Amino acid sequence: MNNILLCGVGGQGTVLASKLIAFAAMEKGLNVRTSETIGMSQRGGCVVSHVRSGEEICSPMVPKGGADVLIAFEPCEAVRNLAFLKEGGALIVNKKAVKPVTASLTGSAYDGSEMIEYLEKNVPSLTVIDGDDICERCGSAKVLNIALLAAAAKSGQLGLTVGELESAIRKRIPERFHEMNLKAVRLAAGET
Amino acid sequence: MAKRFLMGNEAIALGAVHAGVNVVSGYPGTPSTEILETIAKNNKDGSVYVEWSVNEKAALEVGAGAAYSGARALVTMKQVGLNVASDPLMSLSYVGVKGGMVIVSADDPGPISSQTEQDTRHFAQFAKLPVFDPSSPEEAYQMIQDAFELSEQIGAPVLFRPTTRVCHGCASVDVKDEYEPHKPEGFVKDTMRWVIFPRTSFLNHCKIEKRDPELGDRLSDYRFNKLSGSGRLGIATHGISYAYTCEALDGCTDEYRLLKISTPNPFPERLALEFLKGLDEVVCIEELDPVIERELIFLCGKHGLNVRIHGKLDGTVQPAGENTTESVKDVLSNFMDIKRNEQKLPEPPEMPVRPPVLCAGCPHRASFYAVKQATRGRKAVYSGDIGCYTLGNAKPLDMVDTCLCMGADVTIAQGIHRVEPDTLNFSFIGDSTFFASGITGVVNAVYNRTDIILIVLDNSTTAMTGHQPHPGTGVTMMGDVSNAVSIEKILGAVGCTYVRTVDPLDLSAAEAAVKEAAELTGVRAIIMKSPCIAVSKPGALFGIDADKCINCKKCIRELGCPAIVLTNGRPEIEKSLCYGCGVCAQVCPVGAIGK
To answer: Mutate which of A48, A53, A73, A104 to disrupt the B interface (most B C-beta within 10 Å)?
Structure first.
């Protein structure tokens, strides 16, 4: 069974990313179960998507210590969900912090850097992605999810190759967005 | 059959369509909302009638009328919605239906997006109605079709209770390619049947008490109530906890006797007795209330069985919150050799908390801010309600002093006024909530001569549940544009002494209206009208001129907008989040914020 956990902040595009992984796995004839955070947390709160594929899957939720890949859209959310990553699992994390209102109000200096340092010390298979840079080069903040997926595909543990991801984008995303998303794939998968 | 990747709610929706449903009504509420939306989306030929009703009571009554007329009716809501619909529900249980009627009430263990952790299975027992409890999207697709069939067979409505992880989990589901449409017979007059009277209720009550034990016996053979495995330790579970239990046992399910209850009411006694026979101990793995646990304890007493039942009642299982595979493993580790498989990680750095917040550009932020400024220095209580605007409670706005249930802001404010007549009592209500259950509260205030200031936060949508239309928008789920109902006209017609509509994004106009209303008495109403950012286009983005900014941080301290962040100790507008509402530019004391 392949277990993927995506985490981030409401509004960052985790749901579409999890759908793409699920569709690509289904194309391979695998059974898929996913679980999404829908509701109040979508308003800037913590969100988590679980994607599991394989022969037989009981629960739609990845258990702690069970994720082959953790795809974190935000550094602090990576640390918050690190217990889900299995030993030897791959962590893909976006460098850019999303500063919560609570942090700005208290004058906290949170900028994600101490989270990245912690991850560098404790996760052997870590890929840090400069999502901001890729989004800027592709001309849209919306390609962050695709960039992270591409880096995850490159890790070899996503259960899906970079080529399969590109084909899923062509099949599942409206044509006018193909070019910018495929560019994000190239930038992210070529970067590491 | 075709394989489709469906969310649990979509599976329920397609299952209902494939059962030939004719009429669908409901009120939005997480985690149930996508059921009705999916039916509307798959209704291009308009063969199914679909509506968002004003509230759950209206939805249930629309469904009942359709089912009286022989139609198959589906009614959808979240668990607290069933409280609103409980009046017709209790009576409908006695009166019954002709066409199959299924009421979906989605429960929310956690709770993740709800006020309570109430358990619809209790409502089924209380109302004496059958209830189905699916454990996966695949099962939900099949089970909702069984529910329609059962409802028609027994001539009573049937409850269907999924929980969040089934509603919002996706799976590949085998769905039918074709289905038979159901043809309603039409309404046939029969006073003894459709008019509820004490005498008929007595007779119907007798029938129900006779029916239920027989039905429980029949449901002992129901395909989704499952008994498996062997041994002297039993595990009884249900719903999504069944999935967690199977995963926790990791393929060793045959070593234990496992009971899955999919129809908790009427309880399948014969199946449960077969399960209990020869066991020493049973662990009940349930979410919300210990319904199965109590039934098993009851059966042990009734049949003199010497089996120890563990669960929530003896503290073996946590009393509240969601189960997970890990929590089930922890519980089962008291009875068997089972381990969690987590790595020990060094202590992480301090993580900032991240509660949900009003979006950047949300007009509610401006409304709350305007009222706060206008009442500065005055004694005021701000009663809030259910919706995105409950998030106005967070600092720095801090503008929600009470929140209880749908519509309660209007009436709670009246109660506070009776004790504290000198306090300015504000009541904040959203547009959809106003139609759902706010109007009666306003009438109560006018009739009983109360002094309150009602602020209607009209963002032209039902935002929190994912932007459903409501009577004020005039858009229906059948794709028509009907008569939009005017909130302003309603408020004027019921006798509010002051009714104004203002754009909250114009802070000074909004503040002036609040100040004016505060000087008057009676029921004063201000409609703060500005669309939700999800249903409107962004304006030109704003930025902070670093040369003009005096770094007073007033924009951060007073607004709490997620788009204004501190970078190197100075406020900065995060372009990817800004929606161009311009409220921060009006708050800045030195005019440093502009387009």
So the answer is: A104
